[in-house]
Specification:
The complex is a heterodimer. By secondary structure, chain A is an alpha/beta fold. Helices cover about 50% and strands about 15% of the residues of chain A. Chain A folds into two domains: about 120 residues, Rossmann fold, CATH 3.40.50.2300; about 60 residues, Orthogonal Bundle (Arc Repressor Mutant, subunit A). The longest helix of chain A is centred in the middle third of the chain and has 15 residues. Chain B folds into two domains: about 60 residues, no CATH class; about 160 residues, no CATH class. Helix content of chain B is about 75%, strand content about 0%.
Chain lengths: ~200, ~240
């Protein structure tokens, strides 16, 4: 679930614009997290730790050194670069951005622009999938807690090893728990197994 | 970990203000063996007084503020000593302070949460196994990795013996295992195990886990992105010289 949250890096010198944009984006329905930076380099340094996937920047920052901006832009794997416009900029500079936000845009338009960009690029297939396990996944989980190997589970449940592996992946993805010991505690606290299973 | 605003640390900033902004700096100062009563001294002054390389201190401080390390290419071979001293102090913090605190809370919960004995007993077991893994990894660093790194710095080196025992890959795998387990425990406590009658203890347990995780993550970033590249650079210069 965390995978599809949008972490936005905002580089904009004006305090008023920043605060306003932050308020609008936080009120939007998608899960945005916004980090403000004073310079492009500062944002770039924070990309790995903040897992920033979308940048909103003032085109004036790119205008002065376009080749440098293009190089930085291409070296980073962000989903999108959005320009925030409240002064006039050359057409050439604007082509460097995937989308733009105008100061005259309504809150809904701004939210929609950001939402569109994130929907197009979101690779997380189980974006809105429920976290509850299917009955087959529960079967597999029981076997995991008993310490069975993938092969043993496949034989016992009459399915292929490949299917076992894919169920396991779903279990990990849904519960967010990776270790066998952790999954055992999960199974007990959700009453999927009881201690007698171990007796 | 309680910070609300992220400041990119630089040399002229006042140390005390940085501490007020991000209280995790307190534990960082301890790892650096620095006193936290810093008056109105700047980062640079503190480093000068304590014979610390500015660049190293600032890179680590920025990690605590959530920024990726920078300027690593400007680190000197001699900085290895300061980084190792920092890491050794953090080992003491995990082993003698944070981990025992967590064990104490779990033990306490086991006694008073009579309805959830099974889950708590399993958590206790889980955390004990986790502790053993952390201890093993830290011992590996203290006994194999760090002495090997120090050996590289000494003029009369004979690293052939220790070289065989040290592997960067093994080092990184340890880190991943440690992070996964801690994350599982947090997920279980936040999402699944309800301790209605002992919410404050549960919160204390979680806060401790978050604190441990925060510092451990920084610890592995320091090793993987600062120490190892520096060591690789030294090794290369030795084999070329």
């Amino acid at each position: 679930m965390d995978k599809c949250r949008i972490n936005i890096g905002l580089v904009e010198p004006s305090q008023i614009i920043c605060e306003g944009l932050t308020t609008i984006l936080l009120k939007a329905e998608s899960h945005n997290r916004i980090f403000r930076f004073d310079s492009l380099d500062e944002m770039i340094a924070a990309i790995p730790t903040h897992q920033i996937n979308l940048a909103i920047i003032n085109p004036a920052l790119a205008k002065n050194n376009v080749p440098d901006f293009i190089q930085k832009r291409n070296s980073l794997q962000l989903n999108a670069w959005v320009g925030i416009l409240y002064t006039l900029h050359d057409r050439d500079v604007l082509t460097l951005f995937d989308a733009t936000i105008q100061i005259t845009d309504s809150s809904e338009q701004i939210a929609e622009t950001i939402h569109q960009l994130s929907v197009n690029k979101c690779h997380c297939s189980n974006c809105h999938q429920s976290e509850s396990l299917t009955s087959r996944e529960i079967d597999i989980l029981r076997q995991i807690t008993l310490g069975l190997s993938n092969k043993e589970m496949a034989d016992k449940l009459n399915i292929s090893v490949h299917t076992v592996v894919s169920h396991r992946k779903n279990i990990i993805c849904k519960t967010g728990i990776k270790s066998q010991a952790g999954l055992t505690i999960y199974a007990i606290s959700n009453k999927i197994i009881s201690l007698e299973n171990f007796a | 970990m309680f910070q609300t605003k992220k400041t990119y640390v630089s040399a002229e900033m006042r140390m005390s203000e940085l501490i007020f902004e991000n209280p995790s700096f307190l534990v960082m100062m301890e790892h650096f063996n620095l006193d936290m009563a810093t008056q109105d001294k700047s980062v640079e002054q503190i480093c000068q007084e304590n014979l610390l390389n500015n660049e190293v201190f600032i890179a680590i401080a920025n990690l605590y503020n959530g920024f990726n390390p920078e300027g690593i290419d400007r680190f000197e071979p001699d900085d290895v000593k300061a980084i190792i001293a920092f890491l050794k102090n953090s080992h003491q913090f995990y082993l003698n302070e944070k981990i025992p605190e967590i064990h104490d809370i779990v033990d306490h919960l086991f006694i008073i949460e009579t309805n959830k004995r099974t889950e708590i007993a399993l958590i206790e077991k889980f955390f004990s196994e986790y502790t053993r893994e952390v201890e093993e990894h830290l011992q590996y660093e203290d006994n194999i990795a760090f002495p090997y790194f120090m050996e590289l710095l000494s003029p009369k080196r004979d690293c052939k013996k220790t070289r065989k025992k040290f592997s960067v890959k093994e080092y990184q795998e340890h880190h991943t295992d440690i992070e996964t387990k801690l994350n599982d425990l947090k997920k279980l406590l936040v999402k699944h195990i309800s301790l209605k009658d002992n919410r404050s203890l549960k919160r204390k347990l979680l806060i401790n886990l978050f604190e441990l995780e925060y510092d451990l993550n920084i610890h592995s970033v320091i090793e993987e992105l600062m120490l190892i590249p520096l060591i690789t650079k030294i090794e290369r210069s030795i084999s070329h010289g």
